[in-house]
Design a protein that fits this description.
The chain has 165 residues and is α+β, with helices and mostly antiparallel strands. The protein has helices at residues 4-13, 141-164, and strands spanning 21-26, 35-38, 44-52, 63-73, 79-84, 89-94, 100-106, 121-124. The protein has two domains: 4-126, PH-domain like (Roll), CATH 2.30.29; 128-165.
Amino acid sequence: MLSNFEISKYMQDHKMYKGFEIAQTDCKAVPEGSHLLYKKGFDQLYFIKIIENKLNKESNEKIEAIEVVETYKFSMYDTVQFDQYAMSQKYSFTAETGESLTLKTWLSTASLRSIMPSRIKIKIVERKWYNKIIGFRSNQPSKMIAATLVYITFFVALIKFLMER
C-alpha cells in the first residue's frame, strides 16, 4: 500500500493535480474509490483509484496512474454532519432533495471541513469525553465491556513490564 507522501509526490510531478489535497477514504457510494482529492476554492470532490506500477519493477515510479472513479460537487449539498473519531472523521453530506453522501476519511494534511464553502451548514456531533474512546463510541455494552477488558489487560501488562525493569 502506498503512503499519502508517495501519492502526494506523484501529484506534485503532474500539473493536473497541483494544489489538491489527498485523503484515504471509505465511502459506500463509491466502493472502488480508495482516496479523495479536493482543493480549496474548488467545488468538486474526486474519488480516485491509485493504479500501482507492478509490471515495470525497474522503474522508480510506484504509481502508474490515478483514475477518477466518481465526482461529486459541494454545491449539491446544503448540510454536512461532521463526526470526529479517534483516528478518522466522518462526513455525512445531505441535499435538500434528500440525496446524501457519507464518507469516512483518514486525513493527514488539511481537513476537508476547512475547505467547505461557507454556505454549507456544518452540524458537529458532540460526544462526552468517554464516548470518544475506542470501544465506547457506540454505547453498546458488549463493545464497552470488551474495550474495558483490553484496556485493563494492557495497563496490567505495562505495569508488570515497568516493575520488572
